[in-house]
Design a protein that fits this description.
single chain, globular, alpha+beta, 37% strand, two-stranded antiparallel sheet, 177 residues, 26% helix
Length: 177
């Protein structure tokens, strides 16, 4: 009798672990970004197919992006910017800004407003986009979609035009640390 119970529990735990792994490997909680992006069908169709991987050395992170896009990185203030743009339309893309951050996470809406009280944060919410990392998602005053979070001693600010659509979700969902 005990063997059946233990076997049943083991099967349930394995199934839950498999579901968790699938959610993580397929971008997990990035579906919440669908509330912030619009359209994107044209961009997504043009960018469908082959992808490339950008890998940053320090801090170490990577993400996938469409082969028809370019990636450049440069110093900006106290941090760095990774800029991902369509070769055909440089207005279409995503920016990842990161800088060292001496506070432990998670980053919250209240914490951002403490430092930037005049920052317009429309539809701001906290979401579990990555395992063990709470992110703040919002649209700023210019309508750009923002994803801000703290991880491994760095603060990340990912920004994109809402027209990037599901492609933004895919790129953010492919982030690995």
């Amino acid at each position: 009798m005990n063997t059946k119970i233990y076997t049943s529990i083991a099967i349930i735990l394995l199934a839950l672990a498999g579901i968790g792994w699938f959610m993580y490997s397929s971008g997990g909680g990035v579906s919440v970004l669908g509330e912030y992006v619009t359209g994107g069908n044209e961009v997504e169709q043009e960018s469908a197919g082959e992808t490339q991987t950008y890998t940053n050395q320090s801090p170490e992170f990577s993400f996938e992006y469409p082969a028809g896009f370019t990636v450049t990185s440069f110093a900006e203030g106290t941090g760095e910017v990774v800029l991902v743009q369509s070769r055909d339309n440089q207005a279409v893309g995503m920016q990842v800004y990161f800088t060292s951050f001496d506070e432990e996470g998670p980053l919250t809406v209240e914490r951002i407003k403490e430092d930037l009280p005049n920052l317009e944060m429309n539809n701001a919410r906290e979401a579990d986009l990555f395992p063990d990392t709470l992110a703040v998602v919002f649209r700023d005053g210019s309508g750009m979609v923002n994803v801000w979070f703290v991880r491994g001693g760095y603060m990340y600010q990912i920004t994109a035009a809402p027209e990037l659509g599901g492609l933004f979700q895919t790129m953010v969902g492919s982030l690995r640390f």
